[in-house]
Amino acid sequence: MRFGTHEIDRPLCLAPMDDISDPPFRRICKEQGADVAYTEFANCEALVRNVTKMLRKIAIKEEERPIGIQIYGSSEENMERAAAMAQEAQPDFIDINCGCWVKKIANRGDGAGLLRDLKKFEAVVRAVLKGTTLPVTVKTRLGWDTNSIVILDVARMLQDLGIQALTVHFRTRQQGYTGQADWSWIPRIKEVCQIPLIANGDIKTAQDAETCFNLGADGVMIGRGAIHSPWIFRHTRHYLNTGELLPELSLEERVDMCLRHLFSQAEYRGVPRGVVSFRKHYAGYLKSAPNIAHLRCELMQYEQVEPIVERLNRFLEEYHAGRLMDE
Ligand SMILES: Cc1cc2nc3c(=O)[nH]c(=O)nc-3n(C[C@H](O)[C@H](O)[C@H](O)COP(=O)(O)O)c2cc1C
Predict the structure, then answer these.
(1) Among 59, 84, 212, 288, which is 20 to 30 Å from 241 by CA?
(2) Which of 207, 118, 201 is nearest to 157 (CA)?
(3) Share of the chain above pLDDT 70, in %
(4) Are strands 6-7 and 2-3 parallel, antiparallel or unpaired?
């Protein structure tokens, strides 16, 4: 599959995740084998108004390539201008979010709201294509609800418009995150269009990724599975190449990665903001460690980096001394 000038076979993509897939998390996932990353979504209105927070979201670094900037909105004029602004940040491609299910976004016609009005969907994609000379990709869902699954029409339309790749989260907007992502749509979509298809939704293991590739996906995109285990990309690539499953990471390796991520988050967002916003990552890094609930409660209290380093080192010492018991 092509991402700008980068050709990648069976790419493993880190999903765009607001408030999660920021530069520090992207760096960790890249180091752990993610082939492609996306920025957190950036609202087109805020971009064209030069809102600092949005401009920061689309800032990327050379070592992150290949990377896409994701934008969303339903105003054609602002989407065209936002695409031009995104191009100035020099990503490898621009991704349009047509799948966000959050009420305040989808109900005003942005994100998954576009699935209720395919004429508008098409106009927004055309506007983005007009605003940029970079490759444009689209990320969407199956449809608004089970009675209005439109993904096959959407796939055909995007192919005709010249979209470079299509990512589908195999749920409807109405489903949110309930039920199971329905990967059986992969061959059905591949039957009606030739553009590369990136499968998304509930890919949590190397075997899940393999199943999606076997069903015909050209790439896979991993979101929550990467929050729980950023090393999922490295493990998946190893499995796809060798058929062998790597062992789970040791507690030392997890703590080491957790701290490196924390340091980089603290540097990126400053202290205490970076330390506080890092709290959502402890569950993943420390998953299945003994006495984790107690430890997590303690870590949640800290707003500085040093006590966290001290506490995690003490935790490792206690673990090795056999002083921790399973809950
Ligand atoms: C915290 C969070 C934030 C998200 N933010 C975005 C976003 O900015 N853009 C987007 O296209 N999808 C966003 N998503 C959806 C994910 O990209 C992905 O489609 C979804 O989580 C399903 O994949 P998964 O089962 O691998 O998590 C977000 C998901 C989560 C959990």
Answers:
(1) 288
(2) 118
(3) 99
(4) antiparallel
pTM: 0.97
Q: Residue 169 CA: which ligand 1 atom is closest? A: 19
Domains and CATH numbers, the chain: 2-242 (3.20.20.70), 251-320 (1.10.1200)
Burial bucket for residue 54 (CB in 10 Å: 0-12, 13-18, 19+): buried
- The three-class DSSP label of residue 189 is helix
Question: Is the separation of the CB atoms in 46 and 54 below 8 Å?
Answer: yes
Q: Give Cβ neighbours of residue 312 (< 8 Å, ≥ 6 apart).
A: 255, 258, 259, 299
Hey, how many other C-beta atoms are within 10 angstroms of the C-beta on 3?
Answer: 25
Query: Which of the 8 DSSP states describes residue 143?
Result: B
Q: Among 189, 69, 176, which Cα is nearest to 132's?
A: 69
What's the average model confidence in pLDDT over 53-66?
97
Alpha-carbon distance 94 to 134, whole Å? Answer: 7
CA distances to 76, 136, 189, 219, 303 from 131, rounded to whole Å, are 10, 10, 28, 26, 42
Residue of minimum CA distance from atom 3 in ligand 1: 17
Instruction: Return the best residue to mutate from 72, 166, 169 for the ligand 1 pocket (most ligand atoms within 8 A of CB).
Output: 169
State the Cα–Cα distance between residues 99 and 112, nearest whole angstrom. Answer: 4
Entry field: residues in the chain: 327
pLDDT digit string (tens) for 186-217? Answer: 999 999 999 999 999 999 999 999 999 999 99
Q: First vs last Cα of the chain: how many Å apart? A: 46
31 contacts: CB under 8 Å, gap ≥ 6: none
CA 137 – CA 162 distance, rounded (Å): 9
Ligand 1-lining residues (CB < 6 angstroms): 15-18, 20, 40-41, 70, 97, 99-100, 139, 169, 200-203, 222-225
Q: Are the C-beta atoms of residues 169 and 181 closer than 8 Å to each other?
A: yes
Instruction: Report which ligand 1 atom has the smallest distance to the Cα of 222.
Output: 26
